[in-house]
Amino acid sequence: MQLEQRDKELGAIGASIGCNCRPCVEHHIAAGREAGLSEVDLADAVATARAVRDQAIELLAPRIDALLGRGSVGVPSEPSALVKALRAQTLIALGASVGANSHTLLERHIVAALELGLRPAEIAAAARMAEHVQRRAGEMTAEKATHTLDELGGVADAAAVRT
């Protein structure tokens, strides 16, 4: 089953914010407008995605501290209810969970989506869209690193010639 473009963009906005990809955010907010999302829809999508991304960071922090031998510093209990039982927010939360690589939140938001009545095929389509955004974000970041190194390499090469 295919998602409507509007729903795809909601998930993509969530994934873009979840993986902190500026070019992705810029593209998908504009694409969301083109797909018919209002400014209120977009603001709600951004707020939901930020909350999920921030929660993913909070959930991961104790594990990082444990790996560094710092013990558990403020291990969060069950996350607060961040997502209202609305289709759009659920799609955004799914996208942000994928973008932030939070398996814990992803499982919770899949359960919430199923309870809300989304079909497994719709959830899978949203996850695929988010995965595409996340993959593309990584590719763009790697391309930027290569471009920057090429530019700086040229500067370094020119400096070496002058000395």
Question: Your description of this structure?
Answer:
- The protein is mostly helical and 163 residues long.
- The protein has a single domain, classed as AhpD-like (Up-down Bundle).
- The protein has six helices and no strands.
- It has helices spanning 5-18, 22-34, 39-67, 87-99, 103-116, 120-162.
- It is globular, with a radius of gyration of 19 Å.
Write the layout of secondary structure elements.
Blueprint: H1 5-18, H2 22-34, H3 39-67, H4 87-99, H5 103-116, H6 120-162
Q: How would you sum up the global shape?
A: globular
- Order of H and E elements: HHHHHH
Low-confidence stretches: 79-85
**What is the terminal-to-terminal distance?**
63 Å
Total helices: the number is: 6
The major pleated sheet works out as: none
Structural class: mainly alpha
How much beta, percentage-wise?
A: under 5%
What percentage of residues falls in helices of 4 or more residues?
over 70%
The total count of strands amounts to 0
Can you name the CATH architecture?
Up-down Bundle
Task: Determine and state the CATH class.
Answer: Mainly Alpha
Radius of gyration: 19 Å
Mean pLDDT: 86
**CATH topology description:** AhpD-like
Task: Using brief descriptors, characterize the structure shown.
mainly alpha; 77% helix; 6 helices; AhpD-like; 163 residues
Question: How do you describe this structure in short?
Answer:
The protein is mainly α and 163 residues long. It has six helices and no strands.
